[in-house]
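Record 1 of the preview.
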Amino acid sequence: MEEYIDLEAASQSALHEMARVRAALDKIADKWTILILTVICSKPSRFNEIKRRLDGITHKALADALKRLERNGLVTRTVLPTQPVGVEYAITPLGHSLREPFEALCSWAAVNGDKIEAAALRYDNKGNGR
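->
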């Protein structure tokens, strides 16, 4: 009976951790966050520089993402004393701790993107994509 209780406790602990994991992943696993952090990881960048490097992102999507990243402690926003006033975004130590896993994920995507696309086409051609 005690072994069952230990398994139940372990199961509950895992479920508790999963909620924390999901909450953290919800903050970083969206369409642009990984790419934004990858761009500013090497050096602080201004808004338009980030936008240029992320081909396809809209002004609103980038602004919203940067605000969210700042709120979550992954990015800092510094107003520069220039004319006109400029803003520079830099990665925080917390954000920097994501560099290695994000770079690995980007490398994996570059290597395997074609395989994923081919699998999706095979699936769709079988009539599974109803």
